[in-house]
């Protein structure tokens, strides 16, 4: 019988926050003039004597990253991924606010979903080897086009999902925005890169991770009902699909 993921012995470097001894995460401030476009700048450095399999969980953002002299654009990943970190290295990136990469891309953001491409192919220009936040800000100022009002609408829609736990269906979100469900679905495909149902599921499941990170006692059946799930089994299944492991195994990371 094949062992389940939770039965497999795990890397001690990912348990109890031990990864923090090998990695440093920074969030450089975003200049005010870029705030409509950018959710965050981020930088990670690492030092591993042996290769480490890093879990990367989904977010509703398009990322522009600079690593080892290569610039790439990564669309929304609709499920968890893994990256291998080894030796010493670093990466600098920008997470665009949901909806705000669309004017820069010039086409539906859903065309980038679950893909990583060279930034030069997306931006249609040479991309410098950016290594610090000030240079990143300067580069963005040189390439950003005029704002698109629908980008703001898409960002507001995702923000509503993130901040209102009562929004558990696309119909709820459409009513909140005073739009039809079809309009919301088209908006998300064109500007966000994933459907509204997926974004709602992601944020409701992130509420689970926040409670686990805080060490809170979780009454799973009650939480499943609160988040709009038929039962605990459906909640656990969706959590595993999104984050790569069960809630209890995920909690061991912190």
Automatic annotation (TrEMBL):
| Domain spans labelled HTH araC/xylS-type | 169-253
Top-level division of the source organism's lineage:
Bacteria
List the SMART domains.
Answer: HTH_ARAC (SM00342)
Q: What keywords were assigned to this record?
A: DNA-binding, Transcription, Transcription regulation
What residue ranges carry the coiled-coil annotation?
none
Q: Which GO terms describe its molecular function?
A: DNA-binding transcription factor activity; sequence-specific DNA binding
Pfam family for this entry, one: DUF6597
Kindly give the InterPro entries that the UniProt entry links to this protein.
Answer: AraC_XylS_family_regulators, DUF6597, Homeodomain-like_sf, HTH_AraC
Q: What is this protein called?
A: HTH araC/xylS-type domain-containing protein
